[in-house]
Amino acid sequence: xxxxxASPPGMLAAAxxxxxxxxxIEFRTRTAFLSALVFALLGVTIFYFAWDATAVAASDLxxxxxxxxxxxxxxxxxxxxxxxxxxxxxxDGLLGAPISRESIYLxxxxxxxxxxxxILAVTIPAVVLFYNxxxxxxxxxxxxxxxxxxxxxxxxxxxxxxxAVNTRMAELLLPMLSLxxxxxxxxxxxxxxxxxxxxxxxxxxxxxxxxLVAFDIVFxxxxxxxxxxxxxx
Amino acid sequence: MTSGQPSAPLTIPPQRDPLxxxxxxxxxxxxxxxxxxxxxxARQGAAQxxxxxxxxxxxxxxxxxxxxxxxxxxxxxxLKDEKLDRVAESAAEVGLCFxxxxxxxxxxxxxxxxxxxxxxxxxxxxxxxxxFIIIAYLLLRGAVEERGRRARYSAVLxxxxxxxxxxxxxxxxxxxxxxxxxxxLKPSAPSLPNEMLVTFLFxxxxxxxxFIALLRARYRMATLRDYLADREQERA
Lengths: 233, 236
Known about the structure:
The complex is a heterodimer. Chain A is mainly α. Chain A has helices at residues 2-6, 11-29, 31-50, 58-83, 91-96, 101-130, 139-164, 170-197, 202-226. By secondary structure, chain B is mainly α. Chain B has helices at residues 18-36, 51-79, 82-113, 122-143, 147-175, 194-235. The A-B interface holds A 156, 159, 163, 166-169, 173, 176-177, 179-181, 183-184, 187-188, 191, 207-208, 211, 214-215, 218-219, 222-223, 226, 229-230, 232 and B 77, 129, 132-133, 135-136, 139-140, 143-145, 149, 152-153, 155-157, 159-161, 163-164, 167-168, 170-172, 174-175.
Protein backbone atom coordinates (compact mmCIF):
# COMPACT_ATOMS: atom_id res chain seq x y z
CA UNK A 1 0.00 0.00 0.00
CA UNK A 2 2.90 2.37 0.59
CA UNK A 3 3.84 2.10 -3.11
CA UNK A 4 0.47 3.47 -4.11
CA UNK A 5 0.95 6.54 -1.95
CA ALA A 6 4.40 7.21 -3.38
CA SER A 7 3.56 7.03 -7.06
CA PRO A 8 0.98 9.35 -8.67
CA PRO A 9 -2.41 7.69 -9.12
CA GLY A 10 -3.68 6.54 -12.50
CA MET A 11 -6.16 8.59 -14.47
CA LEU A 12 -9.34 6.99 -13.15
CA ALA A 13 -8.03 6.72 -9.60
CA ALA A 14 -7.12 10.42 -9.70
CA ALA A 15 -10.55 11.27 -11.11
CA UNK A 16 -12.12 9.38 -8.23
CA UNK A 17 -10.04 11.38 -5.73
CA UNK A 18 -11.16 14.69 -7.27
CA UNK A 19 -14.79 13.54 -7.27
CA UNK A 20 -14.53 12.42 -3.66
CA UNK A 21 -13.13 15.80 -2.65
CA UNK A 22 -16.02 17.64 -4.30
CA UNK A 23 -18.60 15.29 -2.89
CA UNK A 24 -17.11 15.60 0.61
CA ILE A 25 -17.39 19.39 0.38
CA GLU A 26 -20.96 19.09 -0.85
CA PHE A 27 -21.90 16.52 1.75
CA ARG A 28 -20.60 18.68 4.60
CA THR A 29 -22.40 21.86 3.53
CA ARG A 30 -25.34 20.40 1.58
CA THR A 31 -26.45 23.93 0.61
CA ALA A 32 -26.15 23.53 -3.16
CA PHE A 33 -27.82 20.14 -3.23
CA LEU A 34 -30.71 21.16 -1.01
CA SER A 35 -31.25 24.40 -2.95
CA ALA A 36 -31.25 22.59 -6.28
CA LEU A 37 -33.60 19.97 -4.90
CA VAL A 38 -36.09 22.46 -3.51
CA PHE A 39 -35.84 24.38 -6.77
CA ALA A 40 -36.69 21.22 -8.72
CA LEU A 41 -39.66 20.38 -6.50
CA LEU A 42 -40.96 23.94 -6.72
CA GLY A 43 -40.61 23.74 -10.48
CA VAL A 44 -42.60 20.52 -10.63
CA THR A 45 -45.48 22.11 -8.72
CA ILE A 46 -45.42 25.44 -10.57
CA PHE A 47 -45.45 23.72 -13.96
CA TYR A 48 -48.61 21.89 -12.99
CA PHE A 49 -50.47 25.20 -12.83
CA ALA A 50 -48.96 26.56 -16.03
CA TRP A 51 -51.25 24.32 -18.10
CA ASP A 52 -54.95 23.75 -18.07
CA ALA A 53 -55.16 20.32 -16.45
CA THR A 54 -58.54 19.65 -18.01
CA ALA A 55 -57.21 20.22 -21.53
CA VAL A 56 -53.87 18.42 -21.32
CA ALA A 57 -53.62 15.12 -19.49
CA ALA A 58 -51.09 15.25 -16.66
CA SER A 59 -49.40 12.13 -17.99
CA ASP A 60 -48.74 13.90 -21.32
CA LEU A 61 -47.26 16.83 -19.48
CA UNK A 62 -45.07 14.88 -17.09
CA UNK A 63 -42.10 13.91 -19.32
CA UNK A 64 -41.62 17.46 -20.57
CA UNK A 65 -41.85 18.90 -17.09
CA UNK A 66 -39.42 16.37 -15.72
CA UNK A 67 -36.70 17.10 -18.27
CA UNK A 68 -37.06 20.85 -18.25
CA UNK A 69 -36.82 20.94 -14.46
CA UNK A 70 -33.94 18.52 -14.52
CA UNK A 71 -32.05 20.79 -16.92
CA UNK A 72 -32.45 23.90 -14.82
CA UNK A 73 -31.74 22.17 -11.53
CA UNK A 74 -28.65 20.61 -13.12
CA UNK A 75 -27.41 24.07 -14.10
CA UNK A 76 -27.56 25.13 -10.45
CA UNK A 77 -25.27 22.27 -9.53
CA UNK A 78 -22.91 22.83 -12.43
CA UNK A 79 -22.47 26.47 -11.48
CA UNK A 80 -21.01 25.41 -8.17
CA UNK A 81 -18.67 22.82 -9.68
CA UNK A 82 -15.89 25.24 -10.51
CA UNK A 83 -17.28 28.14 -8.53
CA UNK A 84 -16.06 26.33 -5.41
CA UNK A 85 -12.49 26.36 -6.77
CA UNK A 86 -12.41 30.15 -7.01
CA UNK A 87 -12.09 30.95 -3.30
CA UNK A 88 -8.43 31.35 -2.30
CA UNK A 89 -7.56 30.09 -5.80
CA UNK A 90 -8.18 26.53 -4.68
CA UNK A 91 -7.91 25.52 -8.32
CA ASP A 92 -4.12 26.01 -8.08
CA GLY A 93 -4.04 23.12 -5.64
CA LEU A 94 -5.76 20.93 -8.20
CA LEU A 95 -3.47 22.04 -11.01
CA GLY A 96 -0.38 21.49 -8.85
CA ALA A 97 -1.39 17.93 -8.01
CA PRO A 98 0.49 15.22 -9.91
CA ILE A 99 -2.59 14.20 -11.89
CA SER A 100 -3.53 14.75 -15.50
CA ARG A 101 -5.86 17.53 -16.58
CA GLU A 102 -8.21 14.96 -18.04
CA SER A 103 -8.61 13.29 -14.69
CA ILE A 104 -9.53 16.64 -13.09
CA TYR A 105 -12.28 16.95 -15.69
CA LEU A 106 -13.49 13.38 -15.22
CA UNK A 107 -13.48 13.79 -11.44
CA UNK A 108 -15.44 17.02 -11.59
CA UNK A 109 -17.88 15.47 -14.04
CA UNK A 110 -18.28 12.40 -11.84
CA UNK A 111 -19.11 14.55 -8.81
CA UNK A 112 -21.63 16.49 -10.90
CA UNK A 113 -23.12 13.23 -12.14
CA UNK A 114 -23.71 12.11 -8.55
CA UNK A 115 -25.22 15.54 -7.85
CA UNK A 116 -27.73 15.50 -10.70
CA UNK A 117 -28.52 11.82 -10.18
CA UNK A 118 -29.39 12.63 -6.59
CA ILE A 119 -31.74 15.36 -7.79
CA LEU A 120 -33.32 13.00 -10.32
CA ALA A 121 -33.75 10.32 -7.67
CA VAL A 122 -36.11 12.67 -5.83
CA THR A 123 -37.64 14.53 -8.78
CA ILE A 124 -38.78 11.47 -10.73
CA PRO A 125 -40.84 10.05 -7.80
CA ALA A 126 -42.16 13.58 -7.17
CA VAL A 127 -43.37 13.84 -10.78
CA VAL A 128 -44.91 10.36 -10.57
CA LEU A 129 -46.68 11.41 -7.37
CA PHE A 130 -47.89 14.89 -8.32
CA TYR A 131 -48.92 13.99 -11.87
CA ASN A 132 -50.62 10.77 -10.82
CA UNK A 133 -48.65 8.55 -13.16
CA UNK A 134 -49.27 4.83 -12.98
CA UNK A 135 -46.42 3.77 -10.75
CA UNK A 136 -44.24 0.95 -11.98
CA UNK A 137 -44.64 1.31 -15.75
CA UNK A 138 -41.22 1.61 -17.23
CA UNK A 139 -39.61 2.96 -14.07
CA UNK A 140 -36.50 0.92 -14.77
CA UNK A 141 -36.39 2.16 -18.35
CA UNK A 142 -36.92 5.71 -17.13
CA UNK A 143 -33.98 5.34 -14.77
CA UNK A 144 -31.86 4.18 -17.70
CA UNK A 145 -32.87 7.17 -19.82
CA UNK A 146 -32.21 9.45 -16.86
CA UNK A 147 -28.70 8.03 -16.51
CA UNK A 148 -27.95 8.53 -20.22
CA UNK A 149 -29.34 12.07 -20.17
CA UNK A 150 -27.43 12.94 -17.01
CA UNK A 151 -24.12 11.83 -18.56
CA UNK A 152 -24.61 14.03 -21.61
CA UNK A 153 -25.74 17.02 -19.59
CA UNK A 154 -22.89 16.74 -17.12
CA UNK A 155 -20.23 16.20 -19.81
CA UNK A 156 -21.02 19.49 -21.53
CA UNK A 157 -22.00 21.39 -18.40
CA UNK A 158 -18.81 20.60 -16.50
CA UNK A 159 -16.67 21.93 -19.33
CA UNK A 160 -18.70 25.13 -19.64
CA UNK A 161 -18.69 25.56 -15.87
CA UNK A 162 -14.88 25.61 -15.98
CA UNK A 163 -15.04 28.29 -18.66
CA ALA A 164 -17.91 30.40 -17.36
CA VAL A 165 -16.43 30.72 -13.88
CA ASN A 166 -13.52 32.78 -15.28
CA THR A 167 -15.73 35.26 -17.09
CA ARG A 168 -17.37 38.49 -16.05
CA MET A 169 -20.91 37.12 -16.02
CA ALA A 170 -20.60 33.53 -14.93
CA GLU A 171 -24.18 33.06 -13.68
CA LEU A 172 -25.66 34.19 -16.97
CA LEU A 173 -23.12 32.74 -19.33
CA LEU A 174 -23.32 29.12 -18.13
CA PRO A 175 -27.00 28.70 -19.11
CA MET A 176 -26.43 30.55 -22.36
CA LEU A 177 -23.57 28.27 -23.33
CA SER A 178 -25.12 25.05 -22.03
CA LEU A 179 -28.79 25.24 -22.99
CA UNK A 180 -28.31 24.94 -26.76
CA UNK A 181 -26.25 21.82 -26.06
CA UNK A 182 -28.97 20.42 -23.81
CA UNK A 183 -31.55 20.60 -26.61
CA UNK A 184 -30.81 17.20 -28.20
CA UNK A 185 -30.51 15.61 -24.73
CA UNK A 186 -33.80 17.01 -23.47
CA UNK A 187 -35.56 16.24 -26.72
CA UNK A 188 -34.36 12.65 -26.86
CA UNK A 189 -34.99 12.04 -23.15
CA UNK A 190 -38.48 13.55 -23.25
CA UNK A 191 -39.48 11.72 -26.42
CA UNK A 192 -38.19 8.33 -25.34
CA UNK A 193 -39.56 8.58 -21.81
CA UNK A 194 -42.95 9.77 -23.09
CA UNK A 195 -43.17 6.65 -25.23
CA UNK A 196 -42.10 4.34 -22.43
CA UNK A 197 -44.37 5.98 -19.84
CA UNK A 198 -47.29 5.54 -22.24
CA UNK A 199 -46.52 1.82 -22.33
CA UNK A 200 -45.29 1.80 -25.93
CA UNK A 201 -42.75 -0.86 -26.96
CA UNK A 202 -39.08 -0.07 -26.48
CA UNK A 203 -38.53 -0.29 -30.25
CA UNK A 204 -40.45 2.96 -30.66
CA UNK A 205 -38.12 4.80 -28.32
CA UNK A 206 -35.05 3.22 -29.83
CA UNK A 207 -34.12 5.94 -32.40
CA UNK A 208 -34.19 8.51 -29.59
CA UNK A 209 -32.11 6.34 -27.30
CA UNK A 210 -29.54 5.99 -30.05
CA UNK A 211 -29.27 9.78 -30.24
CA LEU A 212 -28.74 9.93 -26.47
CA VAL A 213 -26.02 7.30 -26.56
CA ALA A 214 -24.30 8.94 -29.53
CA PHE A 215 -24.45 12.33 -27.82
CA ASP A 216 -22.88 10.88 -24.68
CA ILE A 217 -20.05 9.22 -26.57
CA VAL A 218 -19.26 12.24 -28.75
CA PHE A 219 -19.42 14.85 -26.02
CA UNK A 220 -17.74 12.93 -23.22
CA UNK A 221 -14.81 12.35 -25.58
CA UNK A 222 -14.76 15.87 -27.04
CA UNK A 223 -15.12 17.61 -23.69
CA UNK A 224 -12.44 15.47 -22.03
CA UNK A 225 -10.04 16.39 -24.82
CA UNK A 226 -11.06 20.07 -24.80
CA UNK A 227 -10.91 20.56 -21.06
CA UNK A 228 -7.13 21.14 -20.73
CA UNK A 229 -7.51 24.18 -22.99
CA UNK A 230 -9.82 25.82 -20.48
CA UNK A 231 -7.16 25.86 -17.77
CA UNK A 232 -4.58 28.57 -17.36
CA UNK A 233 -1.05 27.32 -17.48
CA MET B 1 -6.24 64.71 -21.69
CA THR B 2 -4.04 65.64 -18.72
CA SER B 3 -0.27 65.21 -18.63
CA GLY B 4 -0.14 62.11 -20.79
CA GLN B 5 3.17 60.99 -22.18
CA PRO B 6 3.84 62.48 -25.58
CA SER B 7 3.83 59.80 -28.21
CA ALA B 8 3.61 59.65 -31.94
CA PRO B 9 0.00 60.21 -32.98
CA LEU B 10 -1.50 57.08 -34.36
CA THR B 11 -3.03 57.49 -37.74
CA ILE B 12 -4.79 54.66 -39.44
CA PRO B 13 -5.59 55.36 -43.07
CA PRO B 14 -9.20 54.58 -43.89
CA GLN B 15 -9.35 51.53 -46.08
CA ARG B 16 -11.82 51.30 -48.88
CA ASP B 17 -12.28 47.78 -50.02
CA PRO B 18 -13.20 47.76 -53.72
CA LEU B 19 -14.54 44.24 -53.22
CA UNK B 20 -17.33 45.59 -51.01
CA UNK B 21 -18.43 47.92 -53.78
CA UNK B 22 -18.36 45.13 -56.33
CA UNK B 23 -20.36 42.88 -54.02
CA UNK B 24 -23.04 45.51 -53.36
CA UNK B 25 -23.34 46.31 -57.07
CA UNK B 26 -23.57 42.59 -57.76
CA UNK B 27 -26.42 42.17 -55.26
CA UNK B 28 -28.27 45.10 -56.81
CA UNK B 29 -27.80 43.52 -60.24
CA UNK B 30 -29.03 40.16 -58.91
CA UNK B 31 -32.23 41.79 -57.80
CA UNK B 32 -32.79 43.58 -61.06
CA UNK B 33 -32.36 40.24 -62.77
CA UNK B 34 -34.48 38.36 -60.26
CA UNK B 35 -37.38 40.79 -60.37
CA UNK B 36 -37.40 41.75 -64.03
CA UNK B 37 -35.68 39.03 -66.02
CA UNK B 38 -36.40 35.78 -64.19
CA UNK B 39 -39.74 34.03 -64.72
CA UNK B 40 -42.25 33.91 -61.89
CA UNK B 41 -42.55 30.51 -60.29
CA ALA B 42 -45.79 28.83 -61.30
CA ARG B 43 -47.11 27.69 -57.94
CA GLN B 44 -45.51 30.11 -55.48
CA GLY B 45 -45.81 33.28 -57.51
CA ALA B 46 -43.61 36.26 -56.74
CA ALA B 47 -42.93 35.01 -53.20
CA GLN B 48 -40.40 32.54 -54.56
CA UNK B 49 -38.06 35.42 -55.43
CA UNK B 50 -37.04 35.67 -51.79
CA UNK B 51 -35.12 32.46 -52.43
CA UNK B 52 -32.33 34.44 -54.04
CA UNK B 53 -31.62 36.02 -50.63
CA UNK B 54 -32.80 33.29 -48.31
CA UNK B 55 -31.16 30.19 -49.75
CA UNK B 56 -27.88 31.90 -50.64
CA UNK B 57 -27.57 33.47 -47.17
CA UNK B 58 -28.39 30.14 -45.57
CA UNK B 59 -25.73 28.39 -47.59
CA UNK B 60 -23.09 30.99 -46.77
CA UNK B 61 -24.03 31.15 -43.07
CA UNK B 62 -24.01 27.39 -42.55
CA UNK B 63 -21.46 26.01 -44.93
CA UNK B 64 -19.03 28.92 -45.24
CA UNK B 65 -19.12 31.10 -42.12
CA UNK B 66 -19.87 28.42 -39.57
CA UNK B 67 -17.48 25.87 -41.06
CA UNK B 68 -14.76 28.53 -41.27
CA UNK B 69 -15.32 29.39 -37.61
CA UNK B 70 -15.06 25.75 -36.58
CA UNK B 71 -11.94 25.08 -38.66
CA UNK B 72 -10.21 28.27 -37.54
CA UNK B 73 -11.07 27.36 -33.93
CA UNK B 74 -9.60 23.88 -34.25
CA UNK B 75 -6.49 25.19 -35.96
CA UNK B 76 -6.08 27.84 -33.27
CA UNK B 77 -5.92 25.25 -30.51
CA UNK B 78 -3.31 23.42 -32.52
CA LEU B 79 -1.12 26.26 -33.84
CA LYS B 80 -1.89 28.99 -31.24
CA ASP B 81 -1.76 31.67 -33.93
CA GLU B 82 -3.71 34.81 -33.01
CA LYS B 83 -4.61 35.35 -36.65
CA LEU B 84 -6.71 32.19 -36.59
CA ASP B 85 -8.58 33.46 -33.56
CA ARG B 86 -9.36 36.67 -35.41
CA VAL B 87 -10.56 34.69 -38.43
CA ALA B 88 -12.89 32.67 -36.19
CA GLU B 89 -14.15 35.82 -34.49
CA SER B 90 -14.80 37.58 -37.80
CA ALA B 91 -16.45 34.55 -39.37
CA ALA B 92 -18.74 34.24 -36.35
CA GLU B 93 -19.83 37.85 -36.47
CA VAL B 94 -20.37 38.03 -40.21
CA GLY B 95 -22.02 34.61 -40.04
CA LEU B 96 -24.41 35.99 -37.43
CA CYS B 97 -25.50 38.69 -39.90
CA PHE B 98 -26.16 36.09 -42.60
CA UNK B 99 -27.99 33.79 -40.17
CA UNK B 100 -30.14 36.73 -39.08
CA UNK B 101 -31.00 37.39 -42.73
CA UNK B 102 -31.99 33.73 -43.11
CA UNK B 103 -34.18 33.82 -40.00
CA UNK B 104 -35.77 37.10 -41.07
CA UNK B 105 -36.53 36.15 -44.67
CA UNK B 106 -37.62 32.57 -43.90
CA UNK B 107 -40.83 33.45 -42.00
CA UNK B 108 -41.85 35.92 -44.73
CA UNK B 109 -41.56 33.18 -47.30
CA UNK B 110 -43.05 30.56 -45.00
CA UNK B 111 -46.15 32.62 -44.18
CA UNK B 112 -46.96 32.95 -47.88
CA UNK B 113 -46.26 29.38 -48.89
CA UNK B 114 -46.87 27.24 -45.80
CA UNK B 115 -49.34 29.56 -44.12
CA UNK B 116 -47.24 29.74 -40.95
CA UNK B 117 -44.49 32.12 -39.89
CA UNK B 118 -42.61 29.47 -38.06
CA UNK B 119 -42.53 25.69 -37.81
CA UNK B 120 -40.30 23.49 -35.69
CA UNK B 121 -38.80 21.80 -38.69
CA UNK B 122 -35.31 20.29 -38.65
CA UNK B 123 -33.62 22.97 -40.70
CA UNK B 124 -35.41 25.87 -39.07
CA UNK B 125 -34.62 24.62 -35.61
CA UNK B 126 -31.00 23.86 -36.43
CA UNK B 127 -30.60 27.35 -37.91
CA UNK B 128 -32.24 28.97 -34.90
CA UNK B 129 -29.92 27.17 -32.53
CA UNK B 130 -26.95 27.97 -34.68
CA UNK B 131 -27.97 31.60 -34.28
CA PHE B 132 -28.19 31.17 -30.48
CA ILE B 133 -24.80 29.51 -30.34
CA ILE B 134 -23.12 32.20 -32.41
CA ILE B 135 -24.59 34.82 -30.08
CA ALA B 136 -23.35 32.85 -27.06
CA TYR B 137 -19.96 32.62 -28.75
CA LEU B 138 -19.76 36.38 -29.23
CA LEU B 139 -21.02 37.03 -25.68
CA LEU B 140 -18.40 34.65 -24.34
CA ARG B 141 -15.74 36.59 -26.20
CA GLY B 142 -17.04 39.79 -24.67
CA ALA B 143 -16.99 38.35 -21.16
CA VAL B 144 -13.34 37.21 -21.06
CA GLU B 145 -10.76 39.92 -20.47
CA GLU B 146 -7.50 38.17 -21.11
CA ARG B 147 -6.76 37.69 -24.80
CA GLY B 148 -5.15 34.25 -24.74
CA ARG B 149 -7.86 32.86 -22.52
CA ARG B 150 -10.56 34.43 -24.67
CA ALA B 151 -9.10 32.77 -27.75
CA ARG B 152 -8.88 29.34 -26.09
CA TYR B 153 -12.39 29.48 -24.62
CA SER B 154 -14.02 30.59 -27.82
CA ALA B 155 -12.09 28.01 -29.84
CA VAL B 156 -13.38 25.25 -27.53
CA LEU B 157 -16.93 26.52 -27.96
CA UNK B 158 -16.48 26.86 -31.71
CA UNK B 159 -15.42 23.23 -32.04
CA UNK B 160 -18.12 21.84 -29.76
CA UNK B 161 -20.76 23.84 -31.62
CA UNK B 162 -19.77 22.13 -34.85
CA UNK B 163 -20.47 18.77 -33.19
CA UNK B 164 -23.79 19.99 -31.85
CA UNK B 165 -25.51 21.23 -34.99
CA UNK B 166 -25.74 17.76 -36.62
CA UNK B 167 -27.25 16.41 -33.40
CA UNK B 168 -29.93 19.08 -33.29
CA UNK B 169 -30.65 18.53 -36.96
CA UNK B 170 -30.95 14.79 -36.50
CA UNK B 171 -33.18 15.03 -33.43
CA UNK B 172 -35.59 17.48 -35.00
CA UNK B 173 -35.56 15.42 -38.18
CA UNK B 174 -36.92 12.53 -36.16
CA UNK B 175 -39.58 14.89 -34.90
CA UNK B 176 -41.06 16.03 -38.21
CA UNK B 177 -39.95 17.99 -41.20
CA UNK B 178 -41.56 20.44 -43.60
CA UNK B 179 -38.72 22.38 -45.14
CA UNK B 180 -38.13 21.36 -48.76
CA UNK B 181 -35.25 19.06 -49.47
CA UNK B 182 -32.28 20.64 -51.21
CA UNK B 183 -33.07 21.45 -54.82
CA UNK B 184 -29.60 22.45 -55.89
CA LEU B 185 -27.07 20.37 -53.98
CA LYS B 186 -28.26 16.90 -54.60
CA PRO B 187 -26.90 13.89 -56.44
CA SER B 188 -29.19 14.29 -59.45
CA ALA B 189 -29.32 17.42 -61.61
CA PRO B 190 -30.62 20.63 -59.98
CA SER B 191 -34.38 20.84 -60.36
CA LEU B 192 -34.52 24.55 -61.11
CA PRO B 193 -35.39 25.96 -64.52
CA ASN B 194 -32.36 27.29 -66.28
CA GLU B 195 -33.13 31.00 -65.89
CA MET B 196 -33.76 30.62 -62.18
CA LEU B 197 -30.61 28.58 -61.77
CA VAL B 198 -28.53 31.29 -63.44
CA THR B 199 -30.05 33.98 -61.21
CA PHE B 200 -29.47 31.78 -58.20
CA LEU B 201 -25.83 31.13 -59.03
CA PHE B 202 -25.33 34.81 -59.80
CA UNK B 203 -26.86 35.68 -56.42
CA UNK B 204 -24.66 33.11 -54.78
CA UNK B 205 -21.54 34.69 -56.29
CA UNK B 206 -22.60 38.20 -55.23
CA UNK B 207 -23.35 37.15 -51.64
CA UNK B 208 -20.10 35.23 -51.43
CA UNK B 209 -18.23 38.37 -52.45
CA UNK B 210 -20.15 40.30 -49.82
CA PHE B 211 -19.20 37.72 -47.22
CA ILE B 212 -15.52 37.96 -48.15
CA ALA B 213 -15.58 41.75 -48.12
CA LEU B 214 -17.29 41.91 -44.72
CA LEU B 215 -14.98 39.24 -43.35
CA ARG B 216 -11.93 41.22 -44.47
CA ALA B 217 -13.29 44.42 -42.94
CA ARG B 218 -14.07 42.67 -39.67
CA TYR B 219 -10.71 40.93 -39.61
CA ARG B 220 -8.96 44.23 -40.15
CA MET B 221 -10.87 45.73 -37.26
CA ALA B 222 -9.85 42.87 -34.99
CA THR B 223 -6.21 43.28 -35.99
CA LEU B 224 -6.30 47.01 -35.26
CA ARG B 225 -8.02 46.44 -31.92
CA ASP B 226 -5.37 43.96 -30.83
CA TYR B 227 -2.64 46.29 -32.09
CA LEU B 228 -4.05 49.17 -30.07
CA ALA B 229 -4.34 46.96 -26.99
CA ASP B 230 -0.68 45.94 -27.35
CA ARG B 231 0.35 49.54 -27.79
CA GLU B 232 -1.56 50.58 -24.69
CA GLN B 233 0.08 47.83 -22.73
CA GLU B 234 3.55 48.88 -23.84
CA ARG B 235 2.93 52.45 -22.79
CA ALA B 236 1.59 51.46 -19.38
